[in-house]
Amino acid sequence: MSKISEMFSLDLGIDLGTANTLVYVKGRGIVLSEPSVVAVERGTKRVIAVGQEAKRMLGRTPGDIIAIRPLRDGVIADFETTEKMIKFFIEKVIPKSLFKPKPRVVMGVPSCITEVEKRAVRESAEQAGSKEIYLIEESMASAIGANIPINEPAGNMICDIGGGTTEISVISLGGMVISNAIRIGGDEFDEAIIKHIKLVHNLVIGESSAEEIKIRIGNAYPEREVKKIEIKGRDTISGLPKILEMDSFEIRDALQEPINIIVEEIKKTLDQTPPELAADIVERGIVLTGGGALLTGLSKLISSQTGVPVIIAENPLLCVALGAGKFLETILKK
């Protein structure tokens, strides 16, 4: 009987991120990576679009449609919409067949969330049709996904910078020795750019424009090459559209505040680390994962501020989903 149930079950690792949702399917790897955005009809809450299609609507919808980001700072801000989004993504990756399997799911969650917030994640996955739900801390999932030898008796430090949270953990012998998390991530980088441009240039830009600026010329450490970008927005004084040119120096200044908070949190975690494990970290380095790890020069800045080598994981955006999937496989073997 267990063999028959195995045939009709599906094992998923889900990184339910503030910015993006990724799904890992056992035996197939990462099969879905979409923005965590849902477009719904105002009033009826009927889903119009999910993921990439919905993200393109952010800030561009007519009055009767709203594009929602149902997660904020790593937690569920809109339960009903999150449930619809998870259901949509699960149905998208489940092969069409006569028997619809109910998946077993491992979901990565920030370690800073409360029990109530954890329950909301479980319930949204249950309502979306999951059979068994397991939760794993994002930094642990990231470490597994980045192929860090977490079961060795040695200190490994991981820093996962997501869209809504940054989690810094020291892992040894398969457990977390120290873990600190702050509700600052890629979203705060975008907000810092929006705030700076409005304050300095009297120009209002949207989230999508700020994200594009961050990806194209965002940086955290001085570099020789000066990159430039043309920005389009609305002038706060005249109310008319305006085009502006900005360079990477100015964007680095704009990003200073959220980046400094992350660096200070890393220093704090190193300070709390037992001496033997700290010695291992100096030798092995700090591993960066998450979308924030891709910010140009961030690894150099952290290394210069801490005196510890910093390594960017091979696939920083995929680590949580890969780790969640691998974690589920180890649970099922037991």
Q: What does the secondary structure layout of this molecule look like, with pairings?
A:
Layout: H1 2-7, E1 11-16, E2 20-25, E3 29-35, E4 38-41, E5 47-50, H2 52-55, E6 65-68, E7 71-72, E8 75-76, H3 79-93, E9 104-109, H4 115-127, E10 132-137, H5 138-145, E11 156-161, E12 166-172, E13 175-182, H6 186-201, E14 203-204, H7 207-217, E15 228-235, E16 241-247, H8 248-272, H9 275-284, E17 286-289, H10 298-306, E18 310-312, H11 319-333
Parallel strand pairs: 1-9, 9-10, 11-17, 17-18
Antiparallel strand pairs: 1-2, 2-3, 4-5, 4-6, 7-8, 11-12, 12-13, 14-15, 15-16
Helix pairs in contact: 3-4, 5-11, 6-7, 6-8, 8-10
Structure description:
The chain is of the alpha+beta class. It folds into three domains: 2-140 and 319-333, ATPase, nucleotide binding domain (Nucleotidyltransferase, domain 5), CATH 3.30.420.40; 149-184 and 258-312, Nucleotidyltransferase, domain 5 (2-Layer Sandwich); 186-254, Alpha-Beta Complex (Actin, Chain A, domain 4), CATH 3.90.640.10. Helix content is 40%, strand content 28%. It has a five-stranded mixed beta sheet with strand order 3-2-1-9-10, with helices on both faces. Strand 9 (104-109), helix 4 and strand 10 form a beta-alpha-beta unit. The longest helix has 25 residues, at 248-272. The radius of gyration is 21 Å and the shape is flat. It starts with a helix and ends with a helix.
